Amino acid sequence: MNRLEQPKTIIVIFGATGDLAKRKLFPSIYNLYKKGNLSEDFAVVGVARRELSSEEFRNDVEESITEFNKETEVLETFSNHFYYQACDVTNSSCYLEIKVLLEKLDEQYNTEGNRIFYLAMAPEFFGTIAEYLKKEGLTSTTGFSRLVIEKPFGHNLPSAQQLNDQIRQAFNENQIYRIDHYLGKEMVQNIEVIRFANAIFEPLWNNRYIANVQITSSEVLGVEDRGRYYETSGALRDMLQNHLMQMVALLAMEPPIKLTTDEIRSEKIKVLRALRPVSEDEVHGYFVRGQYGKGMVDGKEVIGYREENNVDDNSNTETFVAGKLLIDNFRWAGVPFYIRTGKRMSAKSTKIVVQFKDIPMNLYYSKGEMAQTPNLLVINIQPDEGITLHLNAKKSGQNIQTTPVKLDFCNNCVDGINTPEAYEKLLYDCMRGDATNFTHWDEVALSWSFVDPISNVWETQMATNFPNYHSGSMGPKEADQLLAEDSFIWWPVTDFDK
Ligand code: BG6
User: Fold this and answer.
1) Which of 243, 390, 440, 470 is catalytic?
2) Please, what is the average pLDDT of the chain?
């Protein structure tokens, strides 16, 4: 029988009264506990500015679990592991109080000095907190001490570099766990397995057989209550620099020699290094930006981005981005990787489509009609999880005509959108010291250096055509033209969006 590893640790959550803690972190820790991945030897210390007693904090934890989890057994036993410490993180004095609490809990819960500091708060505090944690001695323990950081990791390469330098004063690179929750998604983790555990794909996985690769991550929701953050970010920084580029790296990397963190990361980094840089003069030819106007979503009229709360009336922020990436290496030279993401689109879907080249001679091309459709391998990341292979087969009857058929594998045909599972896996990985599904600094730096020229151009040149797509559509027509110029189309993300 497989014995579960049950890491012993204290998790200190900075920003414990925030949305992320409530929606993702508490439910994830609860799931780990319930599944037996955590023993009784753990404690959670919530830190936030607000004055709360540990009792009140436990009530909040229980409430959020009742709201976001289906099951709620052993809730009280679980929440008894939670403690609270009010703290203005810019003031050194409360770090000492946290330190005293941690030492006490170490004894009480037998956590052997192991500590995870999870920064689930505004990024401007990341550097300060890391510095104080070291200065006030919270990181000097007999066990491990790890820092988990949410995005955004900087705003561009110089600010990311500055943040990294600051954090590195207190933590080594191998103690830093930069979260990209896409790397915790089941089907994103499955990309490697599909590629490297199947004899039928890997030999075809190159520019001789693949025509293009498309990654779409579309959302139906608008910016909701995050206008203030989103105005400084836009889709390029919010989704493309991290989630989409990580998926490109996983799809394009060479097989690692071993499945270790260092080997996998080093292959991903090579892909990012091989990306053809887009200079400021070329941005227009490779990238398209969009902003949603009003429109219909699920039968209801919704407002445009510029009318949302905390958004400028003349906002130049993109809520949609599509781009063409080229990877200049032996395997991928000449194969475009098209990526797009946007808010207020017609469907919530994250999908990868690998389009194979046409066979050299089409025997079934008749009467000027395309009788064959290209072979596609579709990796469905969400909401459905699975793989679909699109093939051509014979239409039944006397004539030799072809018809498209699909081979479907559905991993988990239930709604899995941004469920705590991604966080659950990532938290557990961090507790066990497995950093494979976290982003290394080199990946962050390379992604920013790719994205920076694009944001420089977009920030300095007003988009005179904004808003340029209706809410409830699949984005601006320029995104279709981007592919049409190469004689390709975006494959639909659902069966009904065309
Ligand atoms: C986050 C972005 O990283 O990812 C959000 O900040 C976005 O703007 C979210 O909505 C999408 O995640 P998912 O898992 O729902 O695709």
Assistant:
1) 243
2) 93
Q: Is 417 in the pocket of ligand 1 (CB under 6 A)?
A: yes
Cα distances from 223 to residues 132, 242, 243, 295, in angstroms, run: 33, 18, 17, 14
Got the DSSP string for 233-284?
A: HHHIIIIIIIIIHHHHHHHHPPPPSSSSHHHHHHHHHHHHHHBPP--GGGHH
CA-CA distances (angstroms) from residue 163 to 127, 452, 461?
6, 16, 27
The response to whether residue 350 sits with its C-beta less than 6 Å from ligand 1 reads yes
Q: What is the band of 366 on the pLDDT scale with cuts at 50, 70, 90? A: low
**What pLDDT score does 122 carry?**
87
- The pairing of strands 42-48 and 9-14 is parallel
- 155 labelled catalytic: no
Residues 309-315, mean pLDDT to the nearest whole number: 97
Q: pTM of this prediction?
A: 0.94
Q: Looking at residue 263, what is its pLDDT?
A: 96
Percent of the chain with pLDDT over 90: 86
Contact 98, 129 (CB under 8 A): no
